[in-house]
Amino acid sequence: MTYRVCFVCTGNICRSPMAEIVFRARVAEAGLDGKVEVDSAGTGGWHEGDGADPRTVAVLEDHGYTGGHTARQFQPSWFSRLDLVIALDSGHLGALRRLAPTEQDAQKVRLLRSFDPAAGDHLDVPDPYYGGMDGFEECLEMVEAASTGLLAAVRKDLEGRAA
Questions:
Q1: 38-53, pLDDT tens digit by residue?
Q2: Is 14 annotated as catalytic?
Q3: How far is CA 156 from the centre of its chain?
């Protein structure tokens, strides 16, 4: 059975596609291709059909990541097929939990940086959209740091399923 993770930010062109592409690379490095499916979406549909922000693409490529992306809006009906819904900031967390059809679905929603022990109480990944390239670099650093803990949590859930 495939484990499914969806990253969610506002427009699905900056933070969530970055997290999707980084985490997909971590999944592949861990040999979990075919066992873990990774995608992303936005809380809104403003950018549906668009590619990732060129600054997101540039930062990812500068750090050796590749992968295509087409923006889409998160749909409440997706909860039934997802194991984890990863919000990039507390606003997304609240919006997604309100969209959740059941309490069990709401419990699937977690903040990405909650998987990074070094994040402390600073669990939001700031939106880099209105800033310069340094914001995109900072976003990537936060995503990479949290991806280690997220991968460990997913691996533990997968092992629990096999038991």
A1: 999 999 999 999 999 9
A2: no
A3: 18
